[in-house]
């Protein structure tokens, strides 16, 4: 039987099952190889009483996506083959730079150091030693801007923004011509901002094992439901092609994120920057291709988008670098500092993300507006509300 003659959703299912199987095998092999070559985290300086586990194994997410993309490529239209190529090239850059940063994390602390308590970011900074793998924050930010800029001058760019208030803002009105290249200025700026925000929001959620991978799984699941809805209700050729491409990518990517989540909860492995940043890149990119539905994805990630802005404001208020790390202001740290268990924090965040993501798909305008303000109140004031109950 010809594979192309099968129904689309059956094809998605085949890719999903194949990815689930390959992800499971590759993660097992990766776990062995990372342990064999001592690519392990150093839990002692952070006060964790556990054995070192493989760190940076999230790079396997890219490997699995790349391998299955070889079989996906012939099934796509010319424009989506080009988009897949862009995703693979930029994804490789994001993963490679982030994996180098993971190597710095692996080697920056003396493995002879012991500790029974978690240290502050300042104390950890004093303990670190120089490594050849250190990637300065400015370089990481430049990478994020560069990725957004490249996407912004391709067919993947953000051409318009729809939102919960019902109107659509078209961005592709002003452009400059450089040779044969037509660059739309406002979409370029918005695309860069979108990538920087998503990269850092997802990265900052990485405070508890399994939190980022679980939140990302929920985000991708909601995106899949949204894309199926768009595929069924919008018969236009462009929308159909975009939806099919996104669903194929999700059929490959969701299983590997699911496997990484299950491995990451205990944790048996740590995804590291390489996994976190590639996940963020895929979320940001597929959200644009799926009809520019960044508002829906922003709602799912709203917990950490709002949390990110809250943390930045608090750091500025305390006269600290807004991009510096701390263990105080992030939502998960605030809940942990109140005595909540890691399991409670994880499933609290997962539940909120899924609830607000589904609401963003199915509620009307008024419902979405109300939900948006409820989300702000929950993220900013949840610890104060729980303190009053105590």
Automatic annotation (TrEMBL):
Keywords: Cell membrane, Magnesium, Membrane, Metal-binding, Transferase, Transmembrane, Transmembrane helix. It comes from the Bacteria. InterPro entries: Glycosyl_transferase_4. Mg(2+) binds at residue 203. GO terms for biological process: cell wall macromolecule biosynthetic process; cell wall organization; lipopolysaccharide biosynthetic process. GO terms for cellular component: plasma membrane. This is Glycosyl transferase family 4. Its cofactor is Mg(2+). It is found in: Cell membrane. It is a multi-pass membrane protein. The keyword Chaperone does not apply. The chain crosses the membrane at residues 12-34, 55-76, 82-100, 145-168, 174-198, 210-232, 244-263, 270-291, 344-363, 369-388. It holds the Pfam family Glycos_transf_4. One of its GO terms (molecular function) is metal ion binding.
């Amino acid at each position: 039987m010809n594979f192309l003659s099968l129904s689309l959703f059956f094809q998605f299912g085949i890719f999903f099952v194949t990815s689930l199987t390959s992800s499971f095998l590759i993660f097992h092999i990766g776990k062995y190889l990372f342990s064999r070559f001592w690519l392990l985290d150093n839990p002692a300086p952070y006060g964790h009483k556990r054995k070192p586990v493989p760190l940076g194994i999230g790079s396997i997410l890219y490997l699995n996506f790349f391998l299955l993309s070889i079989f996906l490529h012939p099934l796509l239209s010319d424009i989506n083959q080009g988009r897949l190529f862009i995703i693979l090239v930029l994804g490789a850059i994001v993963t490679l730079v982030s994996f180098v940063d993971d190597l710095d994390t692996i080697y920056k602390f003396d493995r002879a150091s012991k500790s029974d308590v978690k240290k502050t970011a300042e104390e950890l900074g004093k303990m670190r030693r120089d490594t050849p793998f250190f990637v300065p924050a400015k370089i990481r930010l430049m990478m994020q801007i560069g990725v957004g800029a490249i996407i912004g001058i391709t067919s993947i760019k953000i051409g318009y923004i729809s939102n919960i208030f019902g109107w659509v803002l078209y961005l592709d009105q002003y452009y400059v011509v450089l040779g044969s290249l037509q660059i739309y200025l406002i979409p370029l700026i918005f695309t860069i901002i979108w990538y920087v925000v998503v990269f850092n929001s997802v990265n900052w959620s990485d405070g508890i094992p399994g939190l980022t991978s679980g939140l990302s799984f929920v985000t991708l699941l909601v995106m899949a439901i949204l894309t199926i809805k768009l595929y069924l209700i919008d018969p236009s050729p462009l929308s159909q092609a975009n939806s099919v491409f996104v669903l194929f990518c999700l059929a490959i990517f969701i299983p590997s994120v699911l496997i990484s989540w299950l491995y990451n909860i205990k944790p048996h492995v740590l995804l590291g920057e390489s996994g976190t940043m590639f996940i963020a890149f895929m979320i940001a990119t597929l959200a644009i291709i799926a009809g520019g539905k960044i508002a829906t994805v922003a709602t799912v990630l709203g917990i950490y988008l709002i949390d990110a802005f809250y943390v930045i404001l608090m750091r500025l208020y305390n006269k600290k670098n807004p991009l510096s790390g701390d263990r105080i202001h992030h939502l998960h740290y605030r809940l942990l500092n109140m005595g909540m268990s890691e399991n409670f924090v994880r499933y609290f965040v997962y539940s909120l993300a899924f609830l607000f993501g589904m609401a963003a798909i199915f509620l009307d305008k008024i419902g979405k507006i109300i939900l948006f303000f409820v989300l702000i109140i929950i993220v900013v004031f949840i610890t104060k509300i729980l303190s009053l109950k105590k």
